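Title: Comparing notes on inverse folding

I've been comparing how different people in this forum approach sequence design from structure. To keep things fair, I'm posting one structure and asking everyone to reply with a full sequence. Here's the target:
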């Protein structure tokens, strides 16, 4: 009986979710930022928050999504994703205005060099924090042809949506936990060995990691209906991506400001 009540509650929760079009939704970006804060030296966190004008690393994770309606930042519209057929970066299939992969590399170098105005540094720092998260949402490292899964229609607990939106926010929301609760649970899994594993990679490796789990991402029945079984089989990929992003964001910020 308890199981039935629990499943019913989860079903109501998931059916009530609103489709998100941004990577990880707010919760995912908050989790990544919080995990990064916990891996960083306190002095580095203080320096970063000083540049952010007292905003937190976790709190600014959604800033780049929030400015999409601001015409002053239209030049960043394509910096939320990168397209790769096989895990290799191919400039010829990217947007002319740039992509998440090249934007991350360029912004990180800009911040390391310095010489930016106060506002420029703040903006670029907020962009970097967001883009690291986006590069770890597998459908933001999408394959050519389906707009990162946006064209793949599914029914998630009878809610008509697309597989991109499921990975952005529905999988996370199905856990019915706050971002701080999720971050706390994931932090328990982080150890020196895991940190070593994720910090010995390059951004080029991040693309390959996303491609490696594509078979799971597209494991959708012909009728397009997914629910508990899909969550049970593949939610662990979401957790792994959030952990990797948090560790790597901490690494990037330490390299710049540590």
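Reply #1:
Here's my take.
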């Amino acid at each position: 009986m308890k199981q039935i009540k629990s499943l019913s509650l989860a079903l109501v929760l998931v059916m009530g979710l609103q489709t998100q079009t941004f990577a990880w939704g707010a919760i995912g970006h908050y989790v990544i930022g919080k995990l990064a804060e916990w891996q960083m030296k306190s002095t580095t966190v203080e320096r970063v928050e000083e540049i952010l004008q007292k905003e937190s690393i976790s709190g600014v994770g959604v800033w780049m999504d929030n400015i999409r309606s601001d015409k002053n930042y239209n030049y960043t519209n394509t910096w939320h994703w990168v397209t790769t057929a096989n895990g290799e970066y191919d400039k010829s299939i990217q947007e002319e205005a740039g992509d998440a992969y090249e934007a991350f590399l360029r912004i990180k170098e800009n911040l390391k060099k310095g010489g930016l105005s106060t506002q420029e540094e703040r903006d670029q720092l907020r962009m970097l924090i967001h883009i690291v998260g986006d590069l770890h949402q597998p459908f933001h490292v999408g394959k050519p042809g389906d707009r990162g899964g946006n064209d793949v229609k599914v029914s998630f607990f009878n809610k008509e949506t697309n597989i991109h939106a499921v990975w952005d926010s529905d999988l996370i929301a199905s856990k019915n936990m706050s971002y701080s609760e999720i971050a706390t649970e994931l932090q328990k899994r982080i150890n020196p060995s895991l940190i070593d594993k994720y910090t010995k990679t390059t951004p080029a490796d991040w693309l390959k990691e996303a491609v490696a789990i594509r078979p799971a991402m597209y494991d959708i029945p012909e009728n397009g209906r997914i629910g508990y079984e899909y969550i049970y089989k593949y939610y662990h990929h979401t957790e792994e991506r959030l952990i990797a992003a948090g560790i790597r964001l901490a690494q990037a910020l330490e390299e710049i400001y540590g």
